[in-house]
Write a structure and sequence with these properties.
Oligomer: single chain
CATH topology of the largest domain: Serine Threonine Protein Phosphatase 5, Tetratricopeptide repeat
Structural class: mainly alpha
Pfam family, one: Ank_2
Strand content: under 5%
CATH architecture of the largest domain: Alpha Horseshoe
Organism: Cladosporium halotolerans
Helix content: 40-55%
Number of helices: 9
Largest sheet: none
InterPro entries: Ankyrin_rpt, Ankyrin_rpt-contain_sf
CATH class of the largest domain: Mainly Alpha
Shape: globular
Protein name: Ankyrin repeat protein
Number of strands: 0
Number of domains: 2
């Protein structure tokens, strides 16, 4: 890996800002991390910028979906860490990023950024220092992402016991349409 003297922290943050999965992969596979799950988890969970934002925050803030996906795949990564300045979780950061998108990008890129974090287990009920949940920060016109966050809140409140509706009309299992 050619790092031109950059520290692992600098390389991590650069991969998050630029959505550079190759740089992230190289970083995590080379010494001192050498693909060691405990070492990688410790590095990702303890490496923050001066405001306390970690790699997940930075990737979410910059819309680095592919890097976010790779980070969430790392064993032991902590997902609900709050940064120091605003007390935002990475889900708050993703919503702030989505607010900067054009409305025609909400359905695709915006929804995907929020869904990947919700699917990974980020708590949509988490409040920042201003006592705001991610949904409270969302552009009020963005019904697409609002729906994702509201469904996630319901699932958290129900303890994951929410039944997903089946879209097809086909019978389920034997005996469904017996005479």
């Amino acid at each position: 890996m050619s790092d031109d003297g950059a520290t692992p922290k600098e390389l991590l943050f650069e991969s998050c800002r630029r959505n550079n999965t190759a740089l992230l992969s190289d970083l995590l596979s080379q010494p001192p991390l050498s693909s060691s799950a405990p070492a990688i988890a410790h590095f990702l969970n303890t490496t923050t910028d001066s405001l306390g934002a970690g790699a997940l925050h930075l990737a979410a803030k910059h819309g680095a979906y592919d890097v976010l996906d790779a980070l969430l795949d790392q064993e032991g990564v902590e997902i609900d860490h709050a940064e120091k300045r605003e007390g935002d979780s990475c889900l708050h950061a993703a919503v702030r990023y989505v607010n900067g998108l054009r409305p025609d990008e909400w359905e695709g890129e915006g929804k995907a950024m929020v869904e990947i974090l919700v699917d990974a287990g980020c708590d949509p009920r988490a409040r920042n220092k201003a006592r705001l949940r991610p949904v409270d920060l969302l552009d009020p016109r963005n019904e697409v992402v609002r729906g994702v966050l509201q469904r996630a809140e319901v699932q958290f409140l129900a303890g994951g016991d929410v039944v997903q509706e089946d879209d097809d009309d086909a019978p389920d299992g034997p005996g469904s349409e017996s005479d």
